[in-house]
Every structure is written in C-alpha cells, then in structure tokens.
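Q: How would the structure tokens look for this protein?
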Amino acid sequence: MKYYIIAGEASGDLHASNLMRGLLNSDPAAEFRFWGGDEMAAVGGTLVRHYKEGAVMGIVEVLLKARLLKANLRHCKSDILQWQPDVVILVDYPGFNFKIAKFASQRGLKVFYYIAPKVWASREGRIRKLKKYVSRLFVIFPFEVDYFRKHGIEPFYAGNPLLDSIARNPAVEESKEAFCRRTGLDDRPIVALLAGSRAGEIKFLMPHFLELERIIKESGGPLSDCQLVIAGAPSVSKDIYEKYLAGSDIKVVFGETYPLLRHAVSAAVNSGTASLEAALIGTPQVVCYGMNPITFAIAIRLLKVKYISLANLILDKLIFKELLQKDCTAPAILKELEAISADGASRQAMVEDYRRLREVLGGEGASERVAQEMVSELKSR
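A: Here is the predicted structure in token form.
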C-alpha cells in the first residue's frame, strides 16, 4: 500500500520513522512518500520536503512566514492528488496538518492522525475537525483515551513511542568515558542544556544559558566543577550556536541528545518532547521556556492545563520545576540545577517519579503496535 506521511518537526520525524519501520514489518510492500526529515529518509521512500524548510512556531512567527506556509500547503495538496495514496498519515504539526486533513478527506482519501493535536491543552474547538476529517486517531498518552472518548472519538492507544526511540539508540548504553572521548568532552560532570529546535526558542534560551555559565563561574558553587554542554538540534546550524558562544566555554554536540542526557548529572531543558525524553532516560531536570512576548501572552490565555511539560501532565503533579517566560532567569535555573544535581531529597523524589512515569507509559513496541493497527484497518476496509 501507499502511505503519504507528513511530519513537520524533529520529534515528528523521529516518531514517523519508527512508525514507518513498523509499517514495513506489517506491510513489506509499503511505499512511502513523505514530508519529514533525515530519520524518515533513513527508512526509505521519497522525501518531498524537509521539515527544516518550514519549521515555525507561535502566532506571530506564523504570520511572518505566511507566504511560505501557503506555498508549502499548495505543493503538498498537489503532490497528494498526483500520487493518490491509500492513506494520508498526519503526525502532530496541527496548524498545517488540519488543513491537509480537510483537503484529503473531502477528496475521498483515508486520513489517519498519529500523535493527536494537543486540543486538551488549548484550542479545543479543533475536535470538530478531528471528528469530521480524520478516519482514525492514534494517541500516545494514556490520559488522552478518556479525554477523546468524552468528545465522541474512540482513539487507539498502544503506549508511547519515545520508549522505542530511546531503546533503539545504542549510544544510551555507552559508558561516560567512551561518550566523552568520542565527542571531545572532558571527564568532568556534565550539565546538559537543551535550547529547543526552533529559532525563537534558541533566541530566548541561549542568553540565559550564557548568563548561567557566568554566575556559576563567579559563585564557585557546587556546579563550578561541571562542564556545560548543549545538545545541538538537528535542524539548527552550528553557526547559530557559535554566534552566541563566542568567548564561552560551553560546548555543543550534535546528534547526541540521548547519551548526553544519560550521562548528565542534571539538565536545563526546553519544554516539549525533549523534557519527556529526559524524564524517560532518568535525567533530573528543570524546564526552561519562553518565546516572543506577544505570542506568550496570547498562548497563556488559551492554555487549559496546569503544566506545560508532558511528564508533569501525565502524572498530574509537578515532578520538576517549570520556569516560564519572566520566571526563567539564570539565577532561578541555577537554583534548581543545584538542588537536583546533588544526591539529596529533591533528586531522589524526581527519580522515583520518573520510575512511576515509565510504568504508566508501558513498555516498548508502541510504534509496532500502532503500525499493525493501521495496516489492519486499511485491509479491513
């Protein structure tokens, strides 16, 4: 069968690649045409457009790139019609993918939505579009099952695919000594810094991380013997980081997020998938998040949940601190990092919550189970 898959950012690329492997296991003759990234391309098929060309987040930012987004939308619609897939699989990325869902559904194509839009957090009115244009919804968080059922949608849940992604990364089991030798790091304790994958996120957090480095050096506190290491996002050029890091001792490593988190004593993490990855790997963390002030002011009014971090939402408790916008300052980040880097009560409580989180999300194999259900659904109809 022919699968047209659309993922618009790094996390979607990762999850879609694991889904594609599962689809190939259930349907060895599967053909793929997709919008995504390097992870999906490594599985095979035809990459129509890389997510780096259109990645944008935030109301203000979307308005500024409206012309590019419209051009991408036109091209995607035309490409789908020309290829005539058996199913269009949409992976998160709701601003773009809802438009494609409507288009594909109205032309008689089957539409699967994998990794549901976070309508439980904001913009609940989008549920009407899910009901109208999506043939089957596949969710990755346990609390989403009851939520969507209450709104008349029966979703399919088989666990969280991040467990598969982490398990498939052999570097997670690598020793710290081998990891540091391979990446050019020294043997000091590591504090990981994850600044996000979008330009706006990096622009907000990098100055805070530089200030964090300065006050750590000046304070001579417990983290002064650590090395600060940024997990370079695959969609971000090395030059972007280097323009901030001139004169800094902060290092950047690319393609090493999982082993970096595995060997870090603690981490300052931009909210989103990276925060959940850190929790599943077991890295004590503080979430740091901010954006364009206008976008943030609008977003915070629309937000319907207590927390912005997925791990906190899943367990419905504040496992780790969330420093948002004005509260996200270098002294505040340092205070949290110092509390969780030492082997004390704060760290132990967080590690125990992480254990419970992994239990709630279940074991590995979610991607395979979702793929089997998709193929079964397509064959039955």
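DSSP finds 18 helices and 13 strands in the chain.

The first strand starts at residue 2 and ends at 7.

Upvote if useful.
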